[in-house]
């Protein structure tokens, strides 16, 4: 009797169908998604690192808040910090049409252009931290590649918040429920926290980046984007053979 209940609990037809449908969406326009996302990141990083190494004018050191002093250096947060590159790839990966993918790329591209323009007009950096990088070789590599410039607004946080809004809006149409939407928000918050925990940003950078990401997401939101759970069947028909 106990075994039959366990077997019944382990079989969830709804979850299996959702997983299969999600995999099919991931496979649609695979090369556009993979090559497009990679090309976008390469172009962005070329501009980002150029401004990082060639600031135009005096570089302002961002002030510390009490929150920055409260959040100490936490090496365990590095994987969460680096998970951004997976996180921001999820919205286009979960889209099923070329127009959606291109539209998302243009919108997040606008966000990045705004951030890069701010870095050009107002170069900023985080204050120096007393971290023994010899004890943390992973952080030494990070600091060597991505120094403390281009600080405010944090584009790390801005793109995470922008992606969080899109994933939340897309969730009902994809068949994802409240649990997945909470997980999405927790992941976004964890990324924002990690930028301070690894001392790549201070609180002012994080708040500014969050405001920028939320504002651009809302302003550029496609009309009628809000999906209800009832639209999940319609989405399933779109991706059906």
From TrEMBL:
Phosphatidic acid phosphatase type 2/haloperoxidase domain segment(s): 145-221
Protein's UniProt keywords contain DNA-binding: no
Domain of life according to the entry: Bacteria
InterPro entries per the UniProt record, alphabetical: PAP2/HPO
Gene Ontology terms for molecular function: peroxidase activity
Protein keywords: Membrane, Oxidoreductase, Peroxidase, Transmembrane, Transmembrane helix
Transmembrane segment boundaries: 30-51, 71-90, 102-122, 155-176
Protein's UniProt keywords contain Cell inner membrane: no
Name of this protein: Putative Acid phosphatase/vanadium-dependent haloperoxidase
Organism: Thiomonas delicata
């Amino acid at each position: 009797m106990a075994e039959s209940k366990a077997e019944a609990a382990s079989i969830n037809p709804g979850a299996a169908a959702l997983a299969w449908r999600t995999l099919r969406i991931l496979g649609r326009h695979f090369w556009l998604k993979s090559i497009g996302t990679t090309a976008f990141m390469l172009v962005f990083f070329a501009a980002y690192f150029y401004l990082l190494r060639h600031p135009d004018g005096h570089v302002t050191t961002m002030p510390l808040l009490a929150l920055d002093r409260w959040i100490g250096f936490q090496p365990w947060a590095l994987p969460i910090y680096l998970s951004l590159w997976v996180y921001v790839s999820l919205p286009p990966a979960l889209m099923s049409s070329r127009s959606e993918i291109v539209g998302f790329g243009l919108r997040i591209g606008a966000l990045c252009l705004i951030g890069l323009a701010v870095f050009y007009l107002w170069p900023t950096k985080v204050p120096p931290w007393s971290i023994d990088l010899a004890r943390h070789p992973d952080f030494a590599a990070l600091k060597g590649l991505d120094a403390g410039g281009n600080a405010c607004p944090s584009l790390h946080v801005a793109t995470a918040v922008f992606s969080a809004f899109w994933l939340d809006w897309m969730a009902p149409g994809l068949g994802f429920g409240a649990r997945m939407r909470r997980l999405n928000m927790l992941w976004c918050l964890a990324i924002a926290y990690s930028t301070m925990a690894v001392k790549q940003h201070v609180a002012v950078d994080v708040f500014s980046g969050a405001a920028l990401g939320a504002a651009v997401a809302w302003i550029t939101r496609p009309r009628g984007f809000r999906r209800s759970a009832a639209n999940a069947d319609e989405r399933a028909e779109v991706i059906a053979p």
